[in-house]
Design goal:
The protein is of the alpha/beta class. It has two domains: 3-100, Udp-n-acetylmuramoylalanyl-d-glutamate--2,6- Diaminopimelate Ligase, Chain: A, domain 1, CATH 3.40.1390.30; 107-219, NIF3 (NGG1p interacting factor 3)-like (Udp-n-acetylmuramoylalanyl-d-glutamate--2,6- Diaminopimelate Ligase, Chain: A, domain 1), CATH 3.40.1390. The chain is 32% helix and 23% strand. Strands 5-6-8-9-10-7 form a six-stranded mixed β-sheet. A five-stranded mixed β-sheet has the order 1-4-3-2-11, sandwiched between helices. Strand 8 (169-178), helix 7 (183-188) and strand 9 form a beta-alpha-beta unit. It is elongated, with a radius of gyration of 19 Å.
Length: 251
């Protein structure tokens, strides 16, 4: 299977219509789309560390959640961190595919996996305007403190930011990553608590429901495993590996 065929396979799994208008995902860079794919590195971000690892490991392709190129490049020189990575990748003939909001919104993607991690049932879309968010019910009502303990355990957190609610928590809305824009949807759907990677101080203060801000990275750290799962069935000869760079850690 070559890069072009693999991209078509993945796009069938994560259709283009799920992509948000403001997003840039898909083929980030590829010197030759007809090159055969034998080794795929799955990761959340395409950092210098990831590029180093892909180069040393003779990977043909990096499959990431966050786009390698998000904002337009105004210059392509080694002074620009993103452009420098692109130049290195092209020189080494390592392609990059990024599936961002498509992986957020697809059934079984980032937010469904996050809902499953918390044990939510009756999971449904959070917003009619976007496929990204989810809302569901806990197996049994929890106190706010108990919910915080559950979230920290499941996401591997030592701490989180929160706006508490004194009422028992039954319904949880969630959006992995940057979720401030979906807070109003959570309030409108009657969520007891809204969980996201980042909401923002003032938005949390004014929220009509409880809010848990768990950090962008920690709300999406399972993305690489999901991407690897989407490779299953593509072709038996493709080797894939998950790589988590040491960019962000808990201290």
């Amino acid at each position: 299977m070559n890069r072009r065929e693999l991209y078509a396979y993945l796009e069938a799994k994560m259709p283009l219509y799920l992509k948000e208008e403001w997003d840039n995902d898909g083929v980030m860079c590829a010197k030759n789309m007809d090159k055969a794919v034998r080794r795929v590195l799955c990761t959340l971000d395409v950092t210098d560390e990831v590029v180093d690892y892909a180069e040393k490991g003779n990977f043909d392709l990096i499959l990431s959640h966050h786009p390698l190129i998000f904002a337009p490049l105004s210059t392509v020189t080694e002074e620009s961190p993103v452009a420098r990575r692109v130049l290195r990748l092209l020189e080494q003939d390592i392609a990059v595919f990024s599936f961002h909001t498509r992986l957020d919104g697809v059934e079984g993607g980032i937010n469904d996996a996050l809902a499953a991690l918390l044990g939510l049932s009756d999971v449904a879309p959070l917003s009619a305007a976007s496929p990204i968010g989810r809302i569901g019910r806990l197996p049994a009502p929890l106190s706010f403190e108990a919910l915080c303990a559950l979230v920290k355990e499941k996401l591997g957190l030592s701490a989180l930011s929160a706006k508490r609610t004194d009422a028992p928590v039954s319904t949880v809305a969630l959006v992995g990553g940057e979720g401030k824009d979906f807070l109003a949807d959570a309030e409108a759907k009657g969520a007891d608590v809204y969980l996201s990677g980042r909401v923002g101080y003032h938005a949390m203060l004014d929220a009509a429901c409880g809010v848990l801000e768990v950090g962008h990275y920690f709300s999406e750290r399972h993305a690489a495993a999901l991407l690897q799962k989407y490779l299953e069935g593509a072709e038996k000869g493709i080797f894939s590996e998950i790589y988590t760079p040491n960019s962000l850690e808990i201290y």
